[in-house]
């Protein structure tokens, strides 16, 4: 039989679950903000990933000791979501000038035609960047 889990491990897992939840919610909230404020989500997602991994390690230790662990599946799913959001924000940083230009254009668009013009301008700029990238050896 495995040794009993010290109470501090269970308390630490509870604290990390709270931190993980808050960081994940903050990540999702800032995803709806305009640029550049939206990029703060990269830090929140990184924190959620760190807390989620540590939480899963703590829950694994509790489970190995034979105690039931509620929340393991939730933590794993949340960790997967945090990783996806981290990748999204990382991609947004790499194409920041293009996205910022599109958001500026869309913020001034009043009609559907204006929005279509912004979309066309975005696609043309995107194609121009891709041509330059492909042309460089």
Provide a descriptive summary of the structure in words.
This protein is mainly alpha-helical. The chain has two domains: 93 residues; 43 residues. Helix content is 79%, strand content 0%. The chain has five helices and no strands. The longest helix has 24 residues.
Which terms summarize this structure?
single chain; 5 helices; mainly alpha; elongated; 2 domains; 137 residues
Instruction: Note the beta-strand portion.
Output: under 5%
Mean pLDDT: 88
Helix content: over 70%
What is the radius of gyration? Answer: 21 Å
Number of domains: 2
Question: Judging from the principal axes of the Cα atoms, what is the shape?
Answer: elongated
Structural class of the helix and strand makeup? mainly alpha
Counting DSSP H or I runs of 4 or more residues, the number of helices is: 5
> How many E-type strands?
0
Give the SSE order as H and E letters: HHHHH
End-to-end C-alpha gap = 61 Å
Give the biggest sheet: none
Task: Point out poorly predicted stretches.
Answer: none
Topology:
Blueprint: H1 7-30, H2 41-64, H3 72-94, H4 96-108, H5 112-135
Helix pairs in contact: 1-2, 1-3, 2-3, 4-5
Structure in a nutshell:
The protein is mainly alpha-helical and 137 residues long. The protein has two domains: 1-93; 95-137.
């Amino acid at each position: 039989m495995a040794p009993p889990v010290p109470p501090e491990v269970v308390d630490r897992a509870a604290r990390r679950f709270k931190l993980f939840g808050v960081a994940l919610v903050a990540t999702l909230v800032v995803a709806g903000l305009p640029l550049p404020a939206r990029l703060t989500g990269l830090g929140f997602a990184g924190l959620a990933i760190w807390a989620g991994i540590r939480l899963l390690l703590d829950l694994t230790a509790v489970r190995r000791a034979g105690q039931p662990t509620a929340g393991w599946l939730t933590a794993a799913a949340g960790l997967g979501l945090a990783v996806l959001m981290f990748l999204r924000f990382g991609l947004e940083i790499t194409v920041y000038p293009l996205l910022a230009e599109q958001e500026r254009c869309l913020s001034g668009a009043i009609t559907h035609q204006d929005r279509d013009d912004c979309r066309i301008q975005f696609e043309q700029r995107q194609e121009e960047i891709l041509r330059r990238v492909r042309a460089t050896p």
